Amino acid sequence: MLLASCAREAAVREVPASRPAAKPIPPANASSTASRAPDTANQATDSVIGDADDESIPPMEDSIAFSCTPRSLGPRDTLTLQFETPHGGELMVLTPGDVFFSFVYPQGDNRAQKYSIVPSEEFKTMSKLKVPADIRLPPLVYGKDTIPEAVFGRPGEYKLQMGDKMESDHTGPPYICKVLFTP
Questions:
Q1: Across all residues in the chain, what is the average pLDDT?
Q2: Which of 133, 36, 128 lies closest to 78, judged by CA?
Q3: Burial, 135: exposed, middle or buried (Cβ in 10 Å; 0-12, 13-18, 19+)?
């Protein structure tokens, strides 16, 4: 079995005589892979330990850090969101049709993104936000992302997500609360 460290050196352990002898890896190539198949007899499978690239952390639901009331929302209701402060600077909702809407997001260079209901920096310190059920925002759908439409437009479960860098793969776990919309 060949063992290599993260340093510029590599070490070779003795292997049984039945296997071909391993050669030391030169320091310049310490990150190269060996040409023979690794000995996996004493290793756990990926399904047990997970992939090294899988850095996802499950979202945090129903916490005191982020909550929403009422849990059952009607067309004339107001959704009240409560947060511990400080918190993330973005707030999104996923509809039953798997469409995202951004309630709050940082203003970038794109002036078409002018629909944040409060500035992101101000949102980070808010402990409460009230959103009417008839709010209209553009969906995060290419070609429709400048045309406001009803966010709560169809019956079903809506997942509100609060965090930072929500559209990125490299973000912490979002805080989530769920609301059932019934027109």
A1: 74
A2: 133
A3: middle
What predicted TM-score, i.e. pTM, was given to this entire model?
A: 0.64
- Looking at residue 79, its amino acid is L
Average pLDDT over residues 174-180: 91
Q: What is the mean pLDDT of residues 23-44?
A: 46
Neighbours of 153 (CB within 10 A): 16
> Taking phi first (over 0 means left), then psi (-120 to 50 degrees means alpha), and beta for anything else, what does residue 118 get?
beta
For 160, the enclosing helix (H) or strand (E) is: strand 156-163
3-state secondary structure of 98: coil
In degrees rounded to 5, what are phi and psi of residue 46? -60, -35
| pLDDT tens digits, 74-90 | 999 999 999 999 999 99
Dist CA 89 CA 69 (whole Å): 20
Distance, CA of 183 to CA of 177 (rounded, Å): 19
Coil/strand/helix, residue 171: coil
Residue 103 is inside which H or E element, if any?
strand 100-104
